[in-house]
Design a protein that fits this description.
single chain, about 110 residues, 4 strands
Length: about 110
């Protein structure tokens, strides 16, 4: 499924995929990527999650692989203004999802 995280001139989507896995060496927690209260070491089946972010802008869809990918799709003036705001408010350390939403909303506010 796709979740709409931001809906403005540009749109941000989040896609979460879940794949059922089984691994005899899997352990609850770090090994499988999350703590599953129903994890059974005798029958180590778990869901492997993968998250992807997509930017829809000007009729095209782009995959965002990391925080810096979002800057490719905006002008240098927009980039400079928003990066300065993010530094000033110490927002560079946000997780990817919140970072993308913050960037898009600040770019749109600056128009």
């Amino acid at each position: 499924f796709y979740e709409v995280l931001y809906d403005g001139d540009a749109r941000l989507f989040k896609r979460v995929d879940k794949v059922l896995k089984s691994d005899a060496n899997a352990q609850n927690g770090i090994s499988i990527g999350y703590n599953d209260p129903n994890f059974n070491p005798a029958n180590p089946r778990y869901f492997q999650y993968s998250v992807r972010y997509y930017l829809f802008k000007d009729g095209s869809l782009y995959i965002l692989s990391g925080k810096n990918d979002v800057w490719k799709y905006f002008t240098s003036e927009q980039k400079r203004a928003v990066k300065s705001q993010l530094r000033r408010h110490n927002l560079n350390s946000l997780d990817r999802e919140r970072f993308y939403v913050e960037v898009l909303s600040r770019i749109e506010d600056g128009k």
